[in-house]
């Protein structure tokens, strides 16, 4: 499905465009944003253009497997929300999100995550959406609980941070048969 646009009470989740590169780059390199363990720490604008170009091409494949959407508020990009890691045979994918450091605590991640879960379990016909978070990421755990995901356990040494430190993850999931968030 491309292009995707999901309308929420305040947010619009939509596919990235190549001309988002400068705005998205500014968010990625914000001094108070902590990059995820699998991210390049300080991408250049050219790297972001290349990444968005790859994503746009992949998104137009008939069996699209990755929904990395811009989280926009009044037309500005304030974060990202994704469904990735698709396992089509098992109707399963993984939820992710991040919000601009100046805009935490306004319910934006919860709104975006809820919209994405409804989209995945609804339009995309998934049966299960999973999420993982670091044990010290209380805000993310709260987001997952607020949208009705269930805690399923601790995955030991799930992520290798910086190539040298193993980190555990908390695992959450929601099923299509659970109450819709
Ligand atoms: C996690 C993140 C996306 C949350 O975004 P957000 O828009 O602030 O989230 P929301 O406002 O929707 O909800 C946050 C909830 O966590 C709570 N919270 C925040 N910090 C907390 C803390 N230290 N301890 C306990 N609860 C906390 C908030 O009070 C709120 O709950 P409430 O609505 O019941 O009051 C944001 O902090 C972020 O971008 N972090 C960096 C990227 C990241 O960690 N992504 C998730 C990877 S799994």
TrEMBL record:
InterPro entries in the record: Acyl_CoA_acyltransferase (IPR016181), GNAT_dom (IPR000182), N-acetyltransferase (IPR051531)
Database matches in PANTHER family: [RIBOSOMAL PROTEIN US5]-ALANINE N-ACETYLTRANSFERASE, GNAT FAMILY, PUTATIVE (AFU_ORTHOLOGUE AFUA_3G00765)-RELATED-RELATED
Record-stated family: Belongs to the acetyltransferase family. RimJ subfamily.
Keyword terms, alphabetized: Acyltransferase, Transferase
CDD domains given in the database record: NAT_SF (cd04301)
Record flagged with keyword Transferase: yes
Protein name: N-acetyltransferase
Cited Pfam families: Acetyltransf_3
N-acetyltransferase domain segment(s): 11-177
One of the record's GO molecular function terms: acyltransferase activity, transferring groups other than amino-acyl groups
